[in-house]
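The records we work with from here on pair a chain with its fold. These numbers are not coordinates but entries in a learned vocabulary of local backbone shapes. To see the layout at work, look at the sequence and tokens printed below.
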Amino acid sequence: MTESELIAAARTAAAQSYSPYSSFPVGAALLFDDGSVVTGTNIENASYGLGLCAETVAVGRAMADGKRGGLVQVAVTGPGAEPITPCGRCRQVLNELAQLGGTDPEVLCVGPDAVNRVKLSALLPHAFGPASLV
């Protein structure tokens, strides 16, 4: 899968967003080492704190499908004028999946005209994960 295809998958996911309160649709696409892609979109709730971020939905879908590790790249896109990054909670959720496979995925932070590429470890330095519990 090309980077452009992964970004397109994230944008397609964002089009399915349920974001009536923020009007800020976000899409995420996770690429695994076997070539598979899992997407997610944000899902808001009238009880605001119960909303789900796109990255968390994608990781939940991947884990529900039995994926444990193998995460190599993530694309995240939203409607803003600048590229967006995963929030702190999503960085931690992505880190859990990445650490299960010993990877440090590249995160594509996608905006309308630019893509910022950053390793997950740079977004979440000194991360707490499964290895921290041993």
In short: Residues 88-101 form the longest helix (14 residues). The chain has one domain: 3-125. Helices lie at 3-14, 54-64, 88-101, 120-123. The beta strands are 27-32, 37-41, 71-77, 106-110, 115-119.
